[in-house]
Amino acid sequence: MPQNPKFCPNARQKQPDTQLLQGNKRRYTSTILLNYHPRGGSSTTDQGEMENKGLLQSKELYQYILNTSVYPRESEFLKELRDATADYPGALMGTAPDAGQLMTLLLGLVNAKKTIEIGVFTGYSLLLTALAIPDDGKITAIDVSRKAYDDIGLPIIQKAGVEHKIDFVESVALPVLDKLLENAENEGTIDFAYVDADKVNYWNYHEKLLKLLRIGGVVVYDNTLWGGSVAKTDESLVPEPYRASRRHSIEFNKLIAADSRIRLSQVPVGDGSTISRLEDKPCLKESGM
Ligand SMILES: C[S@@+](CC[C@H](N)C(=O)[O-])C[C@H]1O[C@@H](n2cnc3c(N)ncnc32)[C@H](O)[C@@H]1O
């Protein structure tokens, strides 16, 4: 395991000797991995400050954004879910609140009613989606495991009165999208999708989601800057467990940037979000990006 102190894009000032990071399917004991964790998540320090593990390198500025624009507008249910997730194994996987706020804005901009979410974990992004869409809206929420959702998110989602909008499918995501596509009536019906799992398959998700999306529909892909590692020219500086996903992210970013079916913006919130919108005609340089 490389222990190169140079490779620590989200390094904390003070580092414990060892910390345990538990993901649903991963368990690493490594200071560098925890410090590196390429997640746009955030956690709270002993002083009650939000610690930025996103790409924005100024801690003060990140705190300012949260205090000024994000927290005052965050629903009490989202805050409760975020607080409840903080001590849960793999807490860093949760969507960062500033990235979540951007998603809420996008959901509103496209008048989203029918959505798909890939990667639920404890349900922060799922709850914000359920709160943003109308009462008769529907979210197909897919995760290989519903344990974290049942443990943390579901009781809060029930309290918020939005459970009826959620169809939780416990499965790997690709076959679920294939199943939806077996029914031609599903094509062109989705307003919004959020992809936050399984980097290896981002391009496969993209191809399938574009078929399910209506013209003008939006897909947000999370973690597309993978802790900033996509820009590292020397891969040996990237901790080994993150290299495969780094390569997949680089490949995905290249492919999606060249895809004329969509407009896109690469936004450096959290761990990097790629926002893409399905166009009705090829979107070429001549039409202004
Ligand atoms: C980064 S977390 C999602 C975080 C979530 N969006 C939130 O706001 O808290 C990724 C989740 O994807 C799930 N996952 C991993 N591989 C998957 C796959 N192939 N299909 C569906 N879900 C998967 C994991 O179980 C995990 O809960």
UniProtKB/TrEMBL annotation:
Keywords: Methyltransferase, S-adenosyl-L-methionine, Transferase. Gene3D superfamilies: Vaccinia Virus protein VP39. Pfam families: Methyltransf_3. One of its GO terms (biological process) is methylation. It comes from the Eukaryota. GO terms for molecular function: O-methyltransferase activity; S-adenosylmethionine-dependent methyltransferase activity. Belongs to the class I-like SAM-binding methyltransferase superfamily. Cation-dependent O-methyltransferase family. PANTHER family: CAFFEOYL-COA O-METHYLTRANSFERASE-LIKE, O-METHYLTRANSFERASE-RELATED. This is Caffeoyl-CoA O-methyltransferase.
